[in-house]
């Protein structure tokens, strides 16, 4: 038996391909299924099953399309009841695959009500556990994505589900779908894979015996929920069309919302007024899906030789198929600017008597480190609630986050609203706090 993992860093998720004796099991595939099918073909593996642990809230699934393309058997939790053909997985009702391979569904509600983990048996012996969004490495799937009204009930269910999985053999390999960087984790997952024994020994959530205390822990400090999440579950319930083409045409003029994915130092020198400045990185799709209106035309702005297929792919993973093309030359229209600066210069500006600082980090991050006098507004809230009234447009606005990425995105909004943003790039608020305590910082 062999397990190949496919990491999608921007979403903090993993897809898995288990192969045994020429048969394959594809677990929780994302929409860009080509990379999984190519890997199976390269290993001379024929897909026997395509398996989903739950109706995903953070991406649109490629499971149905993978099964249709390969003829594999599509398996989903029985309680999911999606609107397309599939094999329902019932608790502890084995699904034989041949050549000694068997799937044993284990109902593990908590992350979602229908959530099901899959124990893979080889010749009757436990070989691997695919736990989806149930038991994670040093964590568990968060229970509040379906709304605060159901969060506590789901948290109690998650308590029971984790213990159900922890009772499996200690040497069993654990392969969760959600991991570090995912907004689907409750307490900040660590490594990507583990074993049941390692989680028994080291997962702090398994040390909490009382279901109510467990729920208190999971719900104490929830991360924000990206705005596009509310569209993922319904899409996965009804079925997702095939992946769109990732090659888009070059345009002379933009249409719809404009997303500038050039490096931030290029954006700072000049953007199209009103555009969104979201530098291309692993989380480009997450921020674009979070901040832009849904289902409206998008034009990308890129450098002349910049490849935009990664950007189009990331958007398609969350069901955004409205990219109309790319503009590569803004000419004289690039008149919206902002300023980038390093830590030393930023601290000196912050020590000026008329300085004003905007912190766009998440609330949980601010609880760890705060700067006195900072105006605080999480980046997505800046777009939905507007620029805080405390900020004076007549004075420069110093903008910081943890690294400069979110601050640069915020700078585009501030600039189009008539402010003069100065972005701390390559460092963050904790670095500023440390510098201010250094007697040589001034």
UniProtKB/TrEMBL annotation:
Alphabetical list of SUPFAM superfamilies matching this protein: Metallo-hydrolase/oxidoreductase, Rhodanese/Cell cycle control phosphatase
Family matches, as Gene3D superfamilies: Rhodanese-like domain (3.40.250.10), Ribonuclease Z/Hydroxyacylglutathione hydrolase-like (3.60.15.10)
Record keywords, A-Z: Metal-binding
Pfam families on file: Lactamase_B (PF00753), Rhodanese (PF00581)
CDD domains for this protein: POD-like_MBL-fold, RHOD
Domain spans labelled Rhodanese: 351-441
InterPro entries for the chain: Metallo-B-lactamas, Mito_Persulfide_Diox, POD-like_MBL-fold, Rhodanese-like_dom, Rhodanese-like_dom_sf, RibonucZ/Hydroxyglut_hydro
UniProt-recorded name of the protein: MBL fold metallo-hydrolase
